[in-house]
Amino acid sequence: MISERERGGMFYMREFYRNIYTDFIKDERRKGLSKQGLDSIKRRIYKFFNYLDELDLIFTDVRVKEAQDFQRWLVDNGRENGGKYASGTVLNYIKAASRFYNFLKESNMVMSNPFLSIKKLRYIKPLPRNVLREKDINSILTELSEYHKQTGLYKQIRYYKVHVIAELQYSTGMRISEVAGLREEDIEFYKSMLIVKEAKGGVERVVFLNEYAKEVLRNYIEHMKESVLRNYSRESKGIFGAGGGRLTIVVSEVLKEITDKLKCSNISSHGFRHAFGSHFLRAGCDLRYIQGFLGHQSIATTEVYTKVEKEDLKEVLDTYHPRKWLSIK
């Protein structure tokens, strides 16, 4: 959602400025950016307009110093609720502003893109939290597959829906927002393949289903979907009838119930994606393949799973080394 403050940056702009913005968004759409990617660009450009308004600047006033100051402004001001932006979020805002200035340069409205010359923040990628081992993930998936044991039809349907989503995520590494955007026309069962169109960053990618996940998804589409969605108000054209935010809540609530029952670490809907990356790496899969599966634009993002693996090794050493109890007297 775009806040009133973010919208304000547009309302205070002169007409010609709004027209440039509209042309920029049209250009991004022509380049194949997905709806999610366009929404992200809009949100970040609104924030940049707020910065210009605050300093009484227009886009032609921005040189390297002003571009550098925008990064500092993001760090200092953070979110509207007072929270700070993570370094990756700040860099995404800078990337959006840079795309805007590339457009301005191509349109002969500015001589250069000042954001290409700033000193960018060092990106600190946080380690995934609560990456469960294979046996724990299998226990959770088994519990979900026994949805029929739940008390009451509503709870059975709720668990069944999460069962399908969980198998889909663990087979493909898809984000919950990508699952929410999945439509029937994006599924090619004969190839065990899905086309992810609502991908982060707006870049389409192809993912694949293992045989079990394929049959779970096929059964849902062909026999169960209409019955499941009859119990929900549809807010999306996706196969699960809900947006990413709503699906996240449903999946996370069911997972909390199951992990409490199994007495293992709680995971969110994103946990299956992290498990996918971590388990493939542990099984010996090449990092480049994992990058492709997960849709990471940079291999550095995928390399975070190697750090998790090293932490696992340290934990094993601390647990099993024969001299773990020895101390200097």
Features of the shown structure:
329 residues; mainly alpha; DNA polymerase, domain 1; hpI Integrase, Chain A; three-stranded antiparallel β-sheet; 14 helices; 59% helix; elongated
Question: What would you say about this model in short?
Answer:
The protein is mostly helical. It has helices spanning 4-11, 15-30, 35-54, 64-77, 87-106, 134-145, 153-172, 176-180, 211-229, 244-262, 271-282, 287-294, 299-302, 304-320; strands at residues 187-188, 193-196, 205-208.
Describe this structure in words.
The chain has 14 helices and 3 strands. The protein is mainly alpha-helical. The N terminus is likely disordered. A hairpin with a 4-residue loop joins strand 1 and strand 2. It has 2 domains: 113 residues, Orthogonal Bundle (DNA polymerase, domain 1), CATH 1.10.150; 185 residues, Orthogonal Bundle (hpI Integrase, Chain A).
Report the top-level CATH class of the largest domain: Mainly Alpha
Helical element count? 14
Radius of gyration over C-alpha positions, nearest whole angstrom: 23 Å
The CATH homologous superfamily of the largest domain is termed Intergrase catalytic core
Give the class from helix and strand content and strand pairing: mainly alpha
Low-confidence stretches: 1-12
Largest sheet: 3 strands, antiparallel
Mean pLDDT: 80
